[in-house]
Amino acid sequence: MRPLIIERPQKQTRSQRWGYRAITVLFWALFAYFIRPVLTLAAWLLGYYRFQEIMIGAHGWEELVRLLLVYSAVILTMTLVLIGWSLYNLVRFGRHEKRVTPPARIPVEVLAGHFGVTLEQVRQWQDARRLILHYNDEGAIVDGRSLSG
Question: DSSP per residue over 40-101, as a string?
């Protein structure tokens, strides 16, 4: 009796072989994802005796409580420091909604000289709502075009 599935990998294209492999990996990943709770349950049951031995038999719970108290103290300290810093900044800067002195405007001549373009180009670019700049390999502006809109 011949098999129901005809499998001839040598007759498949490269994309078909890779697709088959990808589907296989996908389904193995799904299987691993769905079997994970069962594996976790088994590990927990096996580890229960070890947990009982360390935490109850060897009084490990006392160390756990001590660590939880230390961690709680660290978290509380960090929280208080952050709240204090926020309140300090609120008191110091809360009533200021804007800068006292706006930054100085850079003259068009300085911009044109810095970027190596003409004054007219800088003025057009400043008035543009949307702008495309093209650079050369050294990072200098070689062309600029304003878009309407």
Answer: HHHHHHHHHHHHIIIIIIT-HHHHHHHHHHHHHHHHHHHHHHHHHHHHHHHHHHTT--S-SS
pTM > 0.90: yes or no:
no
Counting Cβ atoms within 10 Å, is residue 121 exposed (0-12), middle (13-18) or buried (19+)? middle
Enumerate the domain spans of the chain. Answer: 14-93, 108-147
Do 7 and 24 touch, CB atoms closer than 8 A? no
pLDDT at 49 (0 to 100): 67
Considering only CA atoms, which of 123, 131, 124, 130 is closest in space to residue 107?
123
pLDDT band at residue 57 using 50, 70 and 90 as cut-offs: confident
Model confidence at 24: pLDDT above 70: yes
